[in-house]
Amino acid sequence: MVFSAVSGICAVALGALGAHQLKGMLSPEMMDAFKTGVYYQFFHTLAVMVIAVINDENKSLKRSASFFIAGTVLFSGSIYGLALSSLSGNIWKWLGPLTPLGGLCFMAGWLFLLFYALKNKS
User: Fold this and answer.
1) Enclosing domain of residue 9
2) pLDDT given for residue 122 in this prediction
3) What distance in Å separates the CA atoms of residue 11 and residue 43, rounded to the nearest whole number?
């Protein structure tokens, strides 16, 4: 639940930063990427919060939350870094490979959530 609270606060702040401060400063492509990072962060923050509310000690559920957290840090974090570093004209290209790795973490999280759902059908 702590991750969800902190990540939610950060997502709101970053969304506001993008909508107000960075508008016109970032290229349209970087602005779209930044918005995508915020969107995915919000969505997976809510997923982790729901898993925390379920409060089940199931390994698949714990793995799902762990992969969602890793995906948020890698996917959204790398996009934020790429977008913000573009402001200086010195893009941190080393972050590029982290974005798809974060996407794979998101997919793994959803897969483990599916395992949990199939095992615990009611």
Assistant:
1) 2-119
2) 66
3) 10
d(CA 35, CA 32): 5
Mean pLDDT for 16-34 is: 95
Phi and psi angles of residue 95, each rounded to the nearest 5 degrees, phi first: -75, -20
Three-class SS state of 88:
helix
Contact by Cβ (8 Å): 74, 98: yes
Query: Tens digit of pLDDT for each residue in 43-54?
Result: 999 999 999 999
User: For 44-48, 76-80, 87-91, which range has the lowest pLDDT when averaged over its residues?
Assistant: 87-91
Q: What is the pTM of this model?
A: 0.93
Give me the DSSP letters along 57-81: --HHHHHHHHHHHHHIIIIIHHHHH
Return d(Cα 101, Cα 104) in angstroms, integer.
5
For helices 59-71 and 28-54, the axis angle rounded to 10 degrees is 160
Q: Number of structural domains, the chain? A: 1
